UniProtKB/TrEMBL annotation, chains A, B:
It comes from Microbacterium schleiferi. It is an enzyme of class 3 (hydrolase). Gene3D superfamilies: 3.30.70.360, Zn peptidases (3.40.630.10). It comes from the Bacteria. The keyword Hydrolase applies. Its EC number is 3.5.1.18. Residues 169-267 form the Peptidase M20 dimerisation domain. GO terms for molecular function: succinyl-diaminopimelate desuccinylase activity. This is Succinyl-diaminopimelate desuccinylase. Keywords: Hydrolase, Metal-binding, Zinc.
Length: 354, 354
């Protein structure tokens, strides 16, 4: 049984040592459910291997605080151990960063904060590290969106103990040119599709990405070729060239607007959108969010990579990332979290919620 | 046994019906050797599966007339048959165009012309349809170049019964750009190698190919991308982009000059030459060649594709292509040669040589 009254550091080790690679979260979910059902101030809902626990204090505001309980596969890096690096204490092992230290902080506070100043919906969910279709938040948003309802959401993803707001959207598209094949000895009979792609690369090279303030954070965009292919054989004029572009766009821009922008940039060319995920506004203009940033300290930063905060954003709920651990070490064989960051994040959340 | 006294049309069918896909020319070479050894006016040399037969009349000039006896693999299109298309008679089947009709004309004339006005070296060789390293002319040029010695050479490759002079050279090179990988969510940390390739495609698109008069024929050049590749993954800024270009250059330009030109065009970029074959001058300023063109009639055309005439050119021997058959039908499943072209080419060669 999990002891939620110990402390977030010991609890981090305890839940890291319970295997819960995506698809095998059942046992950990059972233990979490059992522990929070023992707390009379929380209403508990089990949905698949997701455990939701919430206060119902009639507060003016409700905050959702979420963390996924699955990890990517272990690689000889569990059970956890504590290590000392240059005088700093770390917990070493799979899941310590992504993101069981964050979950341990949440479980500790869920047990401890019987009268927070906002109502809280704690969400510990499964299948985050795999395809979006398997992600429990995808399922719950579709089947029981009421469980996610809140005025503000915090995702405990590793952010080095800093507030990272929202996230950029991203899309991928194929920009295509067509030509006519011919033998390269008589190239004037054909039309070279690769040569026709010159303006596509010119426009990409000349493109100046925007820096867009959204709710007080500046999101840096990017439009990049990530793949180019063309060619039939060494003696054939190619009849097709494809440039795959990746567009990262500020959360103030909708998917439709992003597509319109890419079509404008590549006007005159065939454009096929093959992937689209809208971003998430940080919502830092919300008073609750401003109190949150003030309480936890530091300066909020924009999150560039896409995370599950976008799911809350899609439900109209401003959301930020805030958790212990260096995101660069997530999924890394040397994954490890600084004990001090666990304590800092616990202190920050506690200060804001009480 | 081959009957060289029949006629070139019947002989075309006879030798097409003897399988001789590259590597299996031995039996056909045996039959050709046997037939020409029966002719007292010819000295016969067998070298591998190549048969060389020559007159030694002490003429002021010697002409080499060559044809390969192998074919690409058959595809249900032998034995040959005669067909009538819109009132015109064709021999249908593998090898009829490329190039046994030409060989049949040569064998007929080899038997018939006991006192040509120039000495003739007839060359029927193996392994033309495969890698250059296997080509019998490669071997003989290296081991017994004296056997190829001549003042002028005619290759009986299909040219629709027109004289096609020399051939363009060709080279292939990789033009390369380098960048720095990064996650596409933070593209400003990396350097996009695909974007850096924009000037390569611009220069190709803007390139105006030369038209170069050589010995009275105008060779049209071409510089083309034939392949482009770049990209690591949909969310990674690529660190490498490669553009493979194919340069077809007039026979008045050496391989070294061609390389220098390509390096100039792509100045500032990494250029790696991966394939190089110099062209062949048509040598139509040679009196013997002028007599030849006058005798066979029509207007000489430049040959754009690379052929074995370049091997003679490399030995300092002007050379042209002249043979029956539409080169567009070579290797085609509907390969077929017009009977009238076989007769025209036989008549043309005979007129010039007597």
């Amino acid at each position: 049984m999990l002891d939620l009254t110990s402390n977030a550091v010991d609890l981090t080790r305890a839940i890291c040592d319970i295997p819960s690679v995506s698809g095998d979260e059942g046992h950990l979910a059972d233990l979490i459910e059992e522990a929070v059902r023992a707390l009379p101030h929380l209403e508990v809902i089990r949905d698949g291997d997701t455990v939701i626990a919430r206060t119902n204090l009639g507060r003016a505001r409700r905050v959702a605080i979420a963390g996924h309980i699955d990890t990517v596969p272990i690689n000889g890096n569990v059970p956890t151990r504590t290590v000392d690096i240059d005088g700093e204490e770390f917990i070493w092992g799979r899941g310590t960063v992504d993101m069981k230290a964050g979950v341990a902080v949440q479980l500790t506070l869920a047990a401890d904060l019987v009268a927070p100043k906002a109502d809280i919906t704690w969400i510990w969910y499964d299948h985050e590290e795999v395809a979006a279709a398997l992600n429990a938040l995808t399922r719950i948003a579709a089947t029981r969106a009421d469980l996610l309802a809140a005025d503000f959401a915090i995702l405990g993803e590793p952010s080095n103990g800093q507030v990272e707001g929202g996230c950029n959207g991203h899309m991928r598209a194929i920009i295509r040119t067509h030509g006519v094949r011919s033998h390269s000895a008589r190239s004037w009979i054909g039309e070279n599709a690769i040569h026709k792609a010159a303006p596509i690369l010119e426009r990409l090279a000349a493109y100046t990405a925007r820096e867009v303030p959204v709710d007080g954070l500046v999101y840096r965009e990017g439009l990049n070729a990530v793949r180019i292919t063309g060619g039939v054989a060494g003696n054939v004029i190619p009849d097709l060239c494809e440039v795959e572009v990746n567009y990262r766009f500020a959360p103030s821009r909708s998917g439709a607007e992003a597509e319109e922008h890419v079509r404008e940039v590549f006007e005159g060319f065939e454009v096929e959108v093959i992937d689209m995920a809208e971003g998430a506004r940080p919502g830092l203009d919300d008073p609750l969010a401003q109190e949150f940033v003030a309480a936890v300290g530091g300066t909020a930063q924009p999150k560039y990579g896409w995370t599950d905060v976008a799911r809350f954003s899609a439900l109209g709920i401003p959301a930020v990332n805030y958790g212990p651990g260096d995101p660069q070490l997530a999924h890394h064989d040397e994954e490890r979290v600084a004990v001090a960051q666990i304590r800092d994040v616990e202190r920050g959340l506690r200060a804001w919620l009480t």
